[in-house]
Amino acid sequence: MIDIQNVSSVFDTPDGQLTAVDDVSLHVPEGSIQGIIGFSGAGKSTLLRTMNLLERPRSGRVIIDGTDLLGLDVHQLRTARHGIGMVFQHFNLLNNLTVQKNVELSLKFAGVGRTERRRAAAEALDIVDLADKAGSYPAQLSGGQKQRVGIARALATQPRVLLCDEPTSAVDPRTTASVLQYLSDVNARLGITLVIVTHEMNVIKAIADNVAVMEDGRVVERFDLTALQNPGFVPATPIGRYLITDDIELDRRPRANTVAPADAARYSRV
C-alpha cells in the first residue's frame, strides 16, 4: 500500500543544511497499522508528511497504492490526496465553524456539492460517535471529542490511508485510550491503512502491528509488535531498547558540580 523508497528530506537553515530524513525506505502493507517512534528531532513527523507530499522530499520515491506521488502534476496530486487522510496533533479545527462544517471543509475545497458533503460528514461523525455534536462548536467540546472530529474530517473523503501525527499528544491519558480505540475500529471496520507517529511507546504497543524506530533521520530498527510478547526479545539498537522501556529511571545520587556551593548553602537555609 505504502512504499517509501530511499527518501531524503533536506532543509536550508541559517546554520546550513539540515537532513531531517536520511535515505529512508519503508513498506507498509495494506490494512496494517504502522507505528513510527523516536525522540523529538528524529525525523518521524517529516517522514510522515512526505507520504502525502506536505513535505516534498529532496530525493527518493513515494508510492501510495501503486502511484508515485512525485510523478503527479498539481491537479493529479490534489486528487490523490483525497485517498490519504491526515489526523493532526493539535486538532486544527476552525473555531467559527460547527463540527459539521469542520468535517465538510476538505470536501468543500475538493468541489463536492453541498448535499454530498453533508451526507459524507454525517457518516464520518457517526463512525466516531459524534453525530449528536454536529451543530456544536469546537469550544464546546472536550479534547478527546475535538480529536474525534479530526478523525471524522480525515474520514470524510473515504481515504484508503490515514496518517496520524502524534494523535494523542494533546489529550490526557484516559482520553488517549478512547482516541486509539476509534482509530483501531477504523482500521478493523473499514480496512484503512494507518501510519501513526508518536514518541510514546505505550501508544504503539496498544495499536500498531509493526514499529519503525527512527534516530537522526534514519530508520535504525523495525520489528513486529508480537515480538514484545516474547520474554527473550531485545531490540537490536540502544534507542530501540530504551523506547520499549516503560519506566523512568533517575540517578538519585549526588553529582559533583550540579549545584554551586553558594546555592547549596542557600537551599539549606530554606
Question: Outline of this structure?
Answer:
The chain contains nine helices and ten strands. With 270 residues, it is an alpha/beta fold.
Can you offer a commentary on this structure?
With 270 residues, the protein is an alpha/beta fold. The mean pLDDT is 89. The chain has a single domain (2-245), classed as P-loop containing nucleotide triphosphate hydrolases (Rossmann fold), CATH 3.40.50.300. The chain is 34% helix and 24% strand. The radius of gyration is 21 Å and the shape is globular. The protein has 9 helices and 10 strands. The strands form 2 sheets. The protein has a 6-stranded mixed β-sheet, with helices on both faces. Strands 2-1-4-5 form a 4-stranded antiparallel β-sheet, covered by helices on one side. Helix 3 (99-109) packs across helix 4 (114-127), helix 4 packs across helix 5 and helix 5 (143-155) runs parallel beside helix 6. It has helices at residues 44-50, 74-81, 99-109, 114-127, 143-155, 173-190, 201-207, 238-243, 261-269; strands at residues 2-13, 16-28, 33-37, 59-64, 67-68, 84-87, 161-165, 193-198, 210-215, 218-224.
Secondary-structure map:
Blueprint: E1 2-13, E2 16-28, E3 33-37, H1 44-50, E4 59-64, E5 67-68, H2 74-81, E6 84-87, H3 99-109, H4 114-127, H5 143-155, E7 161-165, H6 173-190, E8 193-198, H7 201-207, E9 210-215, E10 218-224, H8 238-243, H9 261-269
Parallel strand pairs: 3-8, 3-9, 6-7, 7-8
Antiparallel strand pairs: 1-2, 1-4, 4-5, 9-10
